[in-house]
Design goal:
52% of the residues lie in helices and 4% in strands. It is built from four helices and two strands; from the N terminus they run H-H-E-H-H-E. Strands 1-2 form a two-stranded antiparallel sheet. The chain is globular. 16% of the residues are buried.
């Protein structure tokens, strides 16, 4: 009986997945040059960290929900590791002209000022912080 249910489940999943696959003729193909692809990836990465940053700290959120709904009330939780990646994306954004030097510098000042006041343990930051309080 268990084998029949497993086989039925596998067949159901397979038919569902295969039924939702687009035919090759249905796919509109857009080719990007290497430069266009690099610019697209850099811009979208930059924009994720720029627009999605926690507003008080300027750091990268642990989770970003475009709809603004945070079921676990973790809207203001920031991640230190992700923030390092985000800071590098901001540098790339300044270099690529997505924001001005002044805007990039202001964001870095916000981040550094927040980190100066944030909790540390023997000099090291925890992986997660509350982006409003630094706790």
């Amino acid at each position: 009986m268990k084998q029949i249910r497993l086989i039925s489940f596998i067949l159901f999943c397979s038919s569902f997945l295969l039924g939702n696959c687009a035919n090759k003729s249905d796919v509109i193909e857009k080719r990007l040059t290497d430069s266009q692809l690099l610019d697209t990836v850099q811009y979208r990465t930059f924009n994720y960290f720029w627009e999605g940053a926690e507003p008080i700290s300027g750091l990268a959120r642990e989770r970003f929900h475009e709809d603004g709904i945070y079921p676990e009330n973790d809207k203001n939780i920031v991640t230190i590791g992700g923030s390092g990646f985000g800071m590098m994306a901001i540098l790339a954004g300044v270099k690529r002209g997505y924001v001005t030097d002044k805007q990039g510098f202001a964001r870095f000042e916000k981040i550094i000022s927040f980190l100066e006041r944030a909790d540390r343990f023997h000099g090291a930051y925890p992986h997660w912080l509350n982006g409003e309080t630094g706790k």
